[in-house]
Amino acid sequence: MIQILEEKIFNTVWTIKIFTEKRNSSRVSIVENQTIHIRIPTYLTREERIKTIKELIGWAKERVPISDKKETIEAYQRSNDTRTDEWLEKRLEQIWELLFPEVKKLNNVKVIFKGKWKKKFGHIKKIKEDSEIAVNNILKDANIPEYIIDITLAHELVHYMHGFNSPHKKEHKHPHAGGIVSSELKKRGFGVMIKKEKEFLKKEWPKIINEYYKQGSS
Fold it and tell me: How far apart, in whole angstroms, are the C-alpha atoms of residue 165 and residue 170?
């Protein structure tokens, strides 16, 4: 069964397609042409269905690629000018709950802003019995889109579920073998974000890094 809705997001009308399928968990993905796909299991009750759809639409609305209109960008930045470790932790919890619900948290997972790296957005490492996800401090800058932080968190969660720096059974010899991270992210609705991240890395990140280190040396 397919239900189609329309919703205005950042002055653009988006189409929301809701698929009810035989599946074990819910999924949301932002696809091309201002479209959001939501997939939910057939076994959900009416109340659970309404709650799940509302949560997934809310998640997607916060992460849709914004237009290049000056007023839209400024409004977006004003709404996201406080990026703290607490904010980051809530962000991870939301992504984990909505998009990685079957991945068990087998130990304490700490997430923090840390480091000032030119060539990576984040990493995951094991500290005694805990796992630590670190996100580049430079991403605190409100000029950097939130989807860069989201895809960084999701990227490290994929490593966690694959058993790298986590108690989960290690499923592969190398953490990026055969494009396993990108493949997993696409299955979980990050396909458009991956494209946007590549564009950002090519066009925007070098300028941000140059400006950041220029200010640091002045």
Answer: 9
Burial class (CB in 10 A: 0-12, 13-18, 19+), 135: buried
Q: What are phi and psi of 105, to 5 degrees?
A: -90, 105
0.85 cut: is pTM over it? no
| Tokens found for residue 104 | 């068990």
Question: Which run of H or E residues covers position 111?
Answer: strand 109-114
- 16: helix, strand or coil: strand
- Quote the CA–CA distance of 33 and 17 in Å, as a whole number: 12
pLDDT tens digit at each of 218 positions of the chain: 778 877 777 667 888 888 888 888 888 888 777 888 888 888 888 888 888 888 888 888 777 665 443 444 444 444 445 889 999 999 999 899 888 988 999 999 999 999 999 999 999 999 999 999 999 999 998 888 888 999 999 999 999 999 999 999 998 889 998 899 999 998 888 888 898 899 999 999 998 888 887 765 44
Q: Are 126 and 170 in contact (CB under 8 A)?
A: no
- In this structure, what are the phi and psi dihedrals at residue 12, rounded to the nearest 5 degrees? -125, 135
Q: Give the domain ranges of the chain.
A: 1-79, 83-218
Q: Which CATH class is domain 83-218?
A: alpha beta
